[in-house]
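TA notes, week 10

Several of you asked for a full example with nothing omitted. So below is the full record: structure tokens for the whole chain, then the designed sequence directly under it. When grading your own attempts, check the secondary structure regions first.
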């Protein structure tokens, strides 16, 4: 398996190279050169497998020669052995045709653990036996940071610098990052929003002063290996609801488009997906793009769903590339226009290609709170606000198929919002129950390349040659 950049001019890499690089050198994102496919029989044969076995089966064609089948399975068993539920991503029935896929049973209580526990192990495996030192730079709107830090804290050969927008993540999300005191972990609160943090990460990758001195890599969903790991739970859930004989729809709370793009990859691989619902909050750039072809930035509004408070969705580029006949030069021109004007019109081919599989919904704060309250009253189940956005969108969908809402975070990560909507204050699980008693370590810096890049240069370990 070889990996190409969405912008067409970066070197073609194998899986190991794409994983360690994260972002392509031309500013694009790596995607597989071709989509592997599974037959109906191969999908049916997933039915009796554990989550780790399913993961190894789904990911094998993407890994190519970078790992043996036994090595991949061993890494999956280690990664998912840390989850608190034996099913790793269990399904919970809410109604006749409405289901939750609980993705928050990992160490940091969010869906990001499903990918990042594996990614940390992949980094370590690919660095073993080399003199290479990896400097991971990431931006987080809440959950990626804590999951990435947990995955690489204390690992040899790795430094991690995680940017989060000051005052725009929940207290639990912040503390899950800032209370990790390992010497290789550096938390940076920027005086700006998530889109600025994400832009700074891309700017640092493009800065020769940093990229020439350090081996930079990414843990955001711009890293292909993260999306690859997220494809697995679409297969795992759908098979348990009757696939391949039965199609399944998924509703996904969406900010950076990575999680729902993993569902698109599953469909390209042959999974019968009836519909992918792109559920946004009032920061609705993706809803406008899919419903009207208008991918244009607005002003980020701060909400009770901070992981969705985004106006630039990096992974949308991967979809535009795939639906645009994989023309890297044309996509690069589109993205240059977007970077200049803050606006992009989808081509007819991109709009038509998306319309068959995707639908979208914009859910405001009132409808989010209503979904939380009604679900608790009717089923006793407590939702986090991001999951509530997706459930509200799922309940608007008219489709003759089971609808699975991705439950992306434990409700205790957003206790204030949950309590306002339901009157119930969810407790943190025992394994993180002392979170508010731990010491914090974090620096606050202005949202400039000079300040952030200078801090990284001062504290990172240069690449060893």
């Amino acid at each position: 398996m070889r990996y190409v950049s969405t912008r067409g001019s970066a070197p073609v890499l194998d899986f190991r190279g794409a994983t360690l690089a994260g972002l392509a050198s031309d500013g694009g994102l790596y995607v597989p050169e071709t989509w592997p496919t599974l037959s109906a029989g191969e999908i049916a044969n997933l039915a009796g497998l554990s989550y780790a076995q399913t993961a190894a089966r789904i990911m094998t064609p993407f890994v190519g020669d970078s790992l043996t089948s036994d090595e991949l399975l061993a890494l999956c068993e280690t990664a998912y052995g840390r989850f608190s539920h034996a099913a790793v991503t269990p399904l919970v029935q809410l109604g006749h045709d409405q289901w939750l896929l609980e993705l928050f049973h990992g160490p940091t209580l969010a869906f990001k653990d499903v990918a990042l526990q594996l990614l940390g192990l992949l980094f370590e495996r690919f660095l073993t036996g080399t003199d290479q030192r990896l400097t991971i730079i990431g931006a987080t709107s809440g959950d990626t940071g804590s999951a990435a830090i947990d995955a690489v804290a204390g690992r040899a050969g790795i430094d991690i610098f995680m940017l989060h927008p000051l005052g725009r993540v929940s207290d639990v999300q912040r503390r899950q990052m800032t209370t990790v005191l390992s010497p290789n972990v550096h938390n940076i609160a920027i005086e700006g929003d998530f889109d600025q943090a994400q832009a700074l990460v891309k700017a640092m990758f493009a800065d020769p002063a940093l990229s020439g001195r350090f081996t930079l890599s990414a843990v955001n969903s711009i890293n292909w290996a993260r999306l690859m790991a997220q494809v697995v739970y679409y297969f795992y859930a759908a098979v348990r609801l009757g696939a391949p004989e039965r199609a399944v729809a998924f509703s996904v709370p969406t900010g950076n488009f990575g999680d729902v793009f993993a569902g698109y990859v599953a469909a390209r691989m042959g999974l019968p997906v009836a519909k992918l619902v792109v559920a946004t909050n009032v920061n609705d750039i993706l809803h406008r793009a899919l419903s009207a072809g208008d991918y244009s930035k607005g002003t980020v509004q701060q909400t009770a769903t901070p992981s969705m408070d985004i106006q630039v969705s990096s992974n949308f580029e991967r979809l535009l590339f795939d639906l645009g006949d994989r023309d890297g030069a044309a996509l690069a021109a589109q993205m240059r226009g977007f970077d200049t004007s803050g606006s992009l019109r989808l081509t007819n081919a991109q709009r038509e290609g998306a319309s068959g599989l995707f639908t979208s919904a914009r859910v405001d704060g009132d409808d989010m709170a209503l979904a939380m309250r009604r679900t608790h009253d009717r089923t006793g189940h407590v939702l986090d606000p991001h999951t509530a956005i997706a459930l509200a969108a799922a309940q608007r969908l008219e489709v003759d198929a089971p609808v699975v809402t991705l439950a992306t975070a434990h409700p205790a990560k957003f206790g204030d919002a949950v309590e306002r909507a339901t009157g119930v204050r969810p407790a943190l699980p025992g394994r993180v129950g002392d979170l508010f008693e731990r010491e914090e370590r974090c620096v606050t810096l202005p949202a400039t390349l000079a300040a952030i890049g200078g801090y990284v240069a001062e504290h990172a370990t240069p690449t060893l040659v």
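Residues 224-240 form the longest helix (17 residues). Use that as a sanity check on your answer.
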